[in-house]
Specification:
- By secondary structure, this protein is of the alpha/beta class.
- The protein is built from four helices and ten strands.
- The strands form two sheets. The chain has an eight-stranded mixed beta sheet with strand order 5-4-3-6-1-7-10-9. Strands 2-8 form a two-stranded antiparallel sheet.
- 34% of the residues are buried.
Amino acid sequence: MRDLTYFVGITIDGFIAGPDGDIGFFPMLDDILGFMAQEYPETIPTHLREQFGVDGANKQFDTVIQGRATYEPALAVGITSPYAHLRQYVASRTLTESPDPAVEIVADPLEKVRKLKAEDSALGVWVAGGGELAGTLLPEIDELVVKHYPVVAGRGTPMFGGDFRPTHFDVVHREAYPSGAAVSRFRRRV
């Protein structure tokens, strides 16, 4: 069985986006961008990979599932397949047709993720956001990779939406960067 990883950036106060879904207030930190390009190159959108020196090799994931609100900013600028180097799924109750044949719309993300995890693959599945989707998929999330940014939002989209459901994870690795950001990797406690 392969892993489901929630790879996400958060503020000091635990938000992944502003109240209106905005992520533009997150600083573009060279050390975090370098970490992403080196360790998680598949998390960089296809149209930006060359700019960040990513050569096309996926190291961690071959599949991405994202919420509709996470997918919308790409659509707004005419990008219908933001992660063309991965199999792409968008969880949505409102979209019924995909604007791109490379992107599959999924009405039941939990069922889809369970099928994806059962596939035979050396690479995992990446949850790209957002908080509501992460809350829905929490029973299946094996790993968290959290980029902590040195900014307070005050309010916005929490890292996980949904019901009160304490779920324990163990810290596997944590690294602080000169910019003030940090990256923590957690595994689900068994």
